[in-house]
Amino acid sequence: MRTGLKVPPITGPRLEDTRLLTFLRKLADQSDILRDDRGQDLIEYVLVVALIALAATAGMGVVASQINTAFGNVGNKLVNYTS
Fold first, then answer.
1. CA-closest candidate to residue 77, choices 69, 30, 5
2. Whole-number CA gyration radius for the chain
3. pLDDT tens, residue order, the chain (83 aa)
4. Calculated CA dihedral for residues 48, 53, 59, 60, nearest 10 degrees
5. According to the 3-state scheme, what is the secondary structure of 32-74?
6. How far, in Å, CA of 42 to CA of 48, rounded?
7. Taking the complete model, does pTM exceed 0.85, yes or no?
């Protein structure tokens, strides 16, 4: 048996070890979230619907002016025929 060897007492985990384990657990949870693809289809459908709504809204200005012109022409012809 060695006489000059000091053995540290056995205690609980050190604060640094606890922080490291907490960090590693959080990192594992985040990587699980990134790999989880549940709900991905729903998000894709929502994005497609949003894109269609955006395109329809952008196109409404052109279509509305054309419809307004068409009704104006019909109105003018009706006025010409009835007078």
1. 69
2. 36
3. 555 666 556 566 665 677 778 888 888 777 777 677 777 788 889 999 999 999 888 888 888 888 999 999 999 999 888 87
4. 160
5. HHHHCCCCHHHHHHHHHHHHHHHHHHHHHHHHHHHHHHHHHHH
6. 10
7. no
